[in-house]
Amino acid sequence: MAAVTLCALFAMLGVGYVWYKGQIVTLGRQIKEREVRLAELQRDNRLRRDQLAQLCSPVELDARVRKLGLPLAPPALSQIVNLVDTLSPGARSGQAMTSGGTSNE
Q1: Contact 104/96 with Cβ under 8 angstroms?
Q2: pLDDT greater than 50 at residue 37
Q3: Are 45 and 51 in contact (CB under 8 A)?
Q4: Alpha carbons 22 and 10: distance in angstroms, whole number
Q5: Alpha carbon distance 33, 27 (integer Å)
Q6: Looking at residue 86, what is its pLDDT?
């Protein structure tokens, strides 16, 4: 009776070992697939970031305005409004603010 129990125990251990090895292989494959996907997404992000920088450049914007025939021009001096900063010099540099965002006074 003890030999049968011992044999069943070893068989169960063997099945468990094989199952764990299969899980390790499956997880390794999933990790590799996700690493490849991450690299693809990072490459796509780089390409799109570069494309956005190019499309936002003043030279490119000027070219598109001319190509589309948009009647855009710099604003007239009468259309420009200058704003004056009324904060004290200490408050502007952040000296009067604490880390909580409130005034010390």
Answers
A1: yes
A2: yes
A3: no
A4: 18
A5: 10
A6: 84
Helices (H), 1-105: 2-55, 58-68, 89-93
Q: Does any domain span residue 55?
A: yes
- Domain with 44 in it: 30-63
Instruction: With beta carbons less than 8 A apart as the criterion, state whether 65 and 72 touch.
Output: yes
12 or 97, greater pLDDT: 12
* Mean of all residue pLDDT scores within the chain: 87
Q: Are 70 and 61 in contact (CB under 8 A)?
A: no
Our count of domains for the chain comes to 1
Confirm whether 10 is domain-assigned.
Answer: no
Q: Is residue 58 part of a domain?
A: yes
Phi, psi (5° rounding) for residue 97? -105, 140
Q: Which residues of 59-89 are buried (b: 16+ CB within 10 A; e: fewer)?
A: eeeeeeeeeeeeeeeeeeeeeeeeeeeeeee
